[in-house]
């Protein structure tokens, strides 16, 4: 494909050239239709060509596209009011930026400035982005080794193990950061009680707790915030991906006393909070809360999981089904590359995590009919793969 000669070898590319999308479907340049379980790595949260998003963008373009945060803007003000009205308890101020990595970078600076400490504790299996600070908090060495030395004073604790976390903390620890459900490492759900234990430990030690809900937040898990499943709120919450319906945006939600520790000019973003993104963000938040998408995520996620569990009974290749809502991982006993290609041929786009895990992140508008089609396609592909392996074996 012609893009490759210009973009370098930075992405794992799939042989599909997408031309348009609608809801949970996309079409390639040849007119072939696919059910989209990739969702732009979770960005297409409220569906492709969501009418609320389209209308908001068109209306805002006719007003103004960019207003730096050194000036005021009513579209940004409205977005902030809606976002804070939905935020977990205590998070009443926001820094607007442009991506998940930027949201994490802001959180690092805010936490270090507020506490006056430098130590950072993340989780084994974590993924927080590829900019230098976010990369330092990301566990997988394959992303990091070539770029060391990274930011110092980072320790890693075992996800789900409170004693491992306790031993990783010292007197210079500024914060603990974690994903309530780890995405990149294979949809690993926090064990029951773990988030509550982490919250209690951080309170005991005077340490800030940061939740990365860049992938798991905004209705993806069947609740507006993934941390709601465990009735736990952080001191800082990082958001991005689908927050503006596909338009680039990130947000770092913060307790007001934490943000008050920052001085003017110590952190900013040229594009952060631009009216175009904010208009799309207003529309996305209204779609989630007024059009029943969070509830649909819970309902369709349950149907998806039940169907996958039935497939597991019939296919020895499947080791485990994990997740909440429409954030689902299928751990296989073998590599999934051929499965992904087989699904593409049958009109289904799906992600992977590592070599042996299928990752499902469809738009929250996905229907039961589409889920049934995906399950049939997966059933067929798995049967074909098992037959190949039986013949080869």
From TrEMBL:
GO terms for cellular component: cytoplasm. One of its GO terms (biological process) is L-arginine biosynthetic process via ornithine. It is an enzyme of class 2 (transferase). SUPFAM superfamilies: PLP-dependent transferases (SSF53383). Involved in both the arginine and lysine biosynthetic pathways. Homodimer. This is Putative [LysW]-aminoadipate semialdehyde/glutamate semialdehyde transaminase.
């Amino acid at each position: 494909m012609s893009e490759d000669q210009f973009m370098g070898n930075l992405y794992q590319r799939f042989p599909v050239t997408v031309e348009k999308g609608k809801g949970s479907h996309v079409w390639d340049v040849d007119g072939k239709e696919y059910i989209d379980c990739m969702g732009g790595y979770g960005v297409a949260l409220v569906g492709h060509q969501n009418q609320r998003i389209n209308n908001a963008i068109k209306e805002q373009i006719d007003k103004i596209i960019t207003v730096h945060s050194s000036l005021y803007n009513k579209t940004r003000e409205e977005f902030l009011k809606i976002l804070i009205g939905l935020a977990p308890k205590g998070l009443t101020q926001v820094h607007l930026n442009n991506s998940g990595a930027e949201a994490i970078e802001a959180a690092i600076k805010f936490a270090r400035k507020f506490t006056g400490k430098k130590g950072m504790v993340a989780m084994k299996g974590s993924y927080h982005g590829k900019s230098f600070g976010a990369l330092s908090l990301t566990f997988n060495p394959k992303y990091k080794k070539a770029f060391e030395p990274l930011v110092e004073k980072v320790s890693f604790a075992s996800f789900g193990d409170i004693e491992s976390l306790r031993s990783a903390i010292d007197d210079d620890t500024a914060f603990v950061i974690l994903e309530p459900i780890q995405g990149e490492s294979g949809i690993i759900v926090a064990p029951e009680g773990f988030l509550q234990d982490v919250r209690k430990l951080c309170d005991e030690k005077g340490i800030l707790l940061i939740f990365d809900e860049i992938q798991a937040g905004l209705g993806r898990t069947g609740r507006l915030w993934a941390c709601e499943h465990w009735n736990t709120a952080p001191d800082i919450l990082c958001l991005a991906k689908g927050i503006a319906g596909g338009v680039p945006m990130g947000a770092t939600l913060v307790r007001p006393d934490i943000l008050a520790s920052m001085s003017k000019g110590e952190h900013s973003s040229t594009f952060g909070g631009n009216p175009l993104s904010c208009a799309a963000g207003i529309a996305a938040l209204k779609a989630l809360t007024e059009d029943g998408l969070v509830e649909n995520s819970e309902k369709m996620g349950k149907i998806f999981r039940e169907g996958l569990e039935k497939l597991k009974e019939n296919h020895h290749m499947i080791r485990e089904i994990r997740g909440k809502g429409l954030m689902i991982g299928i751990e296989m006993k073998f590599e999934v590359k051929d499965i992904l290609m087989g699904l593409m041929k049958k009109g289904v786009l799906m992600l992977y995590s590592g070599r042996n895990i299928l990752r499902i992140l469809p738009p929250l508008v996905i229907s039961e009919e589409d889920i049934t089609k995906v399950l049939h396609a997966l059933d067929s592909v798995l049967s074909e793969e098992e037959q190949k392996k039986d013949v080869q074996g």
